[in-house]
Amino acid sequence: xxxxxxxxxxxxxxxxxxxxxxxxxxxxxxxxxxxxxxxxxxxxxxxxxxxxxxxxxxxxxxxxxxxxxxxxxxxxxxxxxxxx
Length: 84
What we know:
alpha+beta
């Protein structure tokens, strides 16, 4: 269990070091990169995957969502509206 906690803390540190904000609804959000990572998806993926996604430039003008279940359009709007 200690090893798991350490891995999760490292994932959150990667996001925080790249200016992602922890949202009260269990998301990390970057207004600059227009990206949203759910806690569930962060927990399911490796550190290497997370680093790759964070470092990959968002070449579209659209928000990108990294969640286990794709959020509806209404939920997407609700998630990002405080960051517009």
